[in-house]
Design goal:
Blueprint (H helix, E strand, L loop, with lengths): L5 E4 L9 H16 L7 H11 L1 H9 L3 H17 L8 H10 L3 E5 L4 H11 L6 E3 L13 H10 L6 E5 L3 H6 L5 E5 L7 H10 L2 E3 L2 H9 L1
Parallel strand pairs: 1-2, 1-4, 2-3, 4-5, 5-6
Helix pairs in contact: 1-4, 2-3, 5-10
Length: 219
């Protein structure tokens, strides 16, 4: 019997390694384009995104206009469609074991559904049971509780049967009102102590490695 028959996974920097290999290098290119001469370290990028969220970071720190943000998003969409991030070693084993044991896998992410579907097809050869991505209407995206409410309604899960796995607090904002537990995916250390402290305090579980998470779920 599965400990959690319903796993709700974040995507970027939980299942696939997006930040260090794609999103930060791309941001450096965008910063040079939109604000020539400006630079930002990886740690500062992570810290400010954590504090503000990406769009508000662009607005508050670099004074991006709405038009610039729209252009940046368009270029990012084209970039991510041409580049596929690698999964964290061992995550495929968890996804396969969950599915083979009759459990469900859902993805709730701010990535687009088509890129999430592509990543699962390329790396795992299977698809999530449903994807709640950025292409959904705003009121259906994390941190709105809608994805979890929809999963419970359509698939009959109770809050105690669901585990949300994420690296950011938006997941907690989504899950806490419903009594759903959140696990901190701490296996990609961003070097931002505040993020780790906040997640460890707020989440029911913290896992520092994919192997530790797998053992918790199945052993």
């Amino acid at each position: 019997m599965l400990k959690y028959p319903c796993l709700v996974l974040d995507h970027d920097d939980t299942v696939v390694q997006t930040l260090k290999t794609l999103s930060y290098p791309f941001w450096c290119l965008e910063l040079e384009q939109f604000r020539p001469g400006k630079t930002m370290s990886l740690q500062d990028y992570v810290m400010e995104c954590y504090h503000w969220g990406f769009a508000d970071m662009c607005r508050e720190i670099f004074r991006f206009t709405d038009e610039e943000l729209a252009q940046e998003h368009k270029q990012w969409t084209e970039y991510i469609h041409q580049n596929t991030p690698e999964p964290f070693p061992g995550i495929e084993q968890i996804i396969r074991r969950q599915k083979e044991a009759g459990g469900k896998i859902f993805v709730v992410s701010h990535s687009s559904s088509d890129t999430i579907s592509r990543d699962y097809a390329v790396h795992f050869g299977i698809q999530p049971d449903a994807i709640y991505g950025w292409d959904r209407p705003a009121h259906e995206r994390k941190p709105n509780p809608f994805p979890l409410l929809d999963i419970m309604e359509k698939y009959g899960f109770q809050p105690e049967e669901i585990l949300v796995v994420d690296d950011m607090q938006l997941a907690c904002q989504m899950a806490e009102p419903l009594g759903v537990k959140v696990a901190f995916a701490g296996w990609d250390d961003m070097g931002v102590p505040q993020q780790r402290r906040d997640m460890e305090e707020r989440c029911a579980f913290t896992f520092d490695s994919v192997e530790e998470f797998e053992k918790f779920l199945f052993d």
